[in-house]
Amino acid sequence: MLNVSVISPEAVLYEGTTDSVVAPAFDGEVGILTGHAPMMTLLGKGVLRLGGDGGSGQRFNVDGGFLQVVDNTVRVVTEKASAA
Amino acid sequence: MAKGRELKGRIKSVENTRKITRTMEMVATSKMKRAQDRVAAARPYAQALRDVIASLYSSELAEQFPLLRQPTHVRRAAVLLMTANRGLAGAFNANLIKEARATLARLDSEGVTVDLHVVGRKGAGYFRYVGRAVASARTDIGDRPSAEDAASLINDLTDAFARGAIDAVYVIAPSFKSVLSSPPTTTQLLPVQPPEAGALQRDYILAPDAQAILGALLPLYVRNAVYRALVEMTAAFYASQRTAMKNATDNASDMLKILGRTYNRARQATITQEIAEIVGGAAALQG
Question: Which of B150, B162, B245, B248 could form a disulfide with B227 if both were Cys (CB 3.0 to 4.6 A apart)?
Fold first, then answer.
């Protein structure tokens, strides 16, 4: 399981566990499953999708910012984020 | 009983004032709580940004970023002063303006040309009154500043700094330490003071690379600093308004106590005098 938090300047939009994350990285979509290697990547514009298990398939529109994966913890930090 | 009537009028007016200040105190309290929540909600983002910048930053990379450029000689600086749109908050705005004047005086004495940017009607009004030209004045930012507000304030300054048109950017805003203490502080926003460089602890996969990530995140960091200043200013404003209104309410209560006592004394004196007159009149009839 992954611990995911989606953080915007105004608030923490989501905090919880899920089994997968699909994020719009700057050069295309990136998928993250449990056990992913530590990674830091810039985000582009698009839809961030959390997996169905636990994350209840939530979606967020994001634009810019970054995503950090370390020890099954995913942090999505973006200036513009809204639930989609 | 001319004096009694006069006192009664004053008591009525102080009571009305107290009603108003008490209401304002309660309104300020609830707005302050909401503003405080926003200050707290802004923390994780700032923390996350700071962590990442600190872990990517290294002094070798520093020279490549315009926002980290450390000018040897500051010729032109921008000062961003944040004040509230409204008053009735004690010395809140006055303290901020005082801090701004001290900073301006210091920069002037160093021979720096200063562009003054003001947020809030109170600051704008003051500098219009003293006749100091301001580069921009924003009065449209309300109780709930957004990240876009912050971006619109700082983006031009960031560009100007990157171009080399200005050599430093300062922000003057209250730093919201607690409900009772939010001293106005001047902080240097640009050039960015790099956070303590913490080496990358892990073998991160970096996409695209450290330099590009840092380049993309530094403007976010600067914008976030402005956003936080705005949010803290709002919280500090309501905290200070609450204190001011609480004091006003307490003062009104004290005043009412004294006025009430004076009024009762006057009333008693009149009654005593009337009784004395009746007794005197009756005694005269009997006699």
Answer: B150
Which of B147, B204, B223 has the CB atom closest to A38's CB atom?
B204
Do the chains contact at A38 and B202, CB–CB below 8 Å?
yes
Cβ contact, residue pair B220, A26, below 8 Å: no
**3-class SS at A62?**
strand
Element holding B120 (H helix, E strand) = none
Dump pLDDT digits (tens) for B141-184: 888 898 889 999 999 999 999 888 999 999 999 988 888 888 99
In B, minimum Cα distance to A12 occurs at: B41
- Please, are residues B206 and B213 in contact by the beta-carbon 8 Å criterion? yes
**Which of A68, A28, A49, A70 is CA-nearest to residue B217?**
A68
ipTM: 0.88
Q: Which residues of B touch A41 (CB under 8 A)?
A: 205-207, 213
Candidates 2.60.15.10, 3.30.43.10, 3.40.50.360, 2.30.38.10; correct CATH number of A2-63+70-77? 2.60.15.10
Cβ of B205 within 8 Å of Cβ of A80? The answer is: no
Q: What is the DSSP letter of A30?
A: E
Q: How far is it, in rounded angstroms, from Cα A67 to Cα A62?
A: 11
C-alpha to C-alpha distance for A69 and B271, rounded to whole angstroms: 85
B59 phi, psi to nearest 5 deg: -65, -20
Distance to chain A for B55, nearest Cα, Å: 11
- Tell me if the domain spanning B2-24+243-286 has CATH number 1.10.287.80: yes
DSSP state of A17: E
Residue B260 CA, distance from chain mean position? 37
In angstroms, the separation between the Cα of residue B14 and the nearest Cα of chain A is 42
Q: What is the pLDDT of residues B115-146, one digit of tens each?
A: 999 999 999 999 999 999 899 999 998 888 98
B128 close to B147: Cβ distance less than 8 angstroms? no
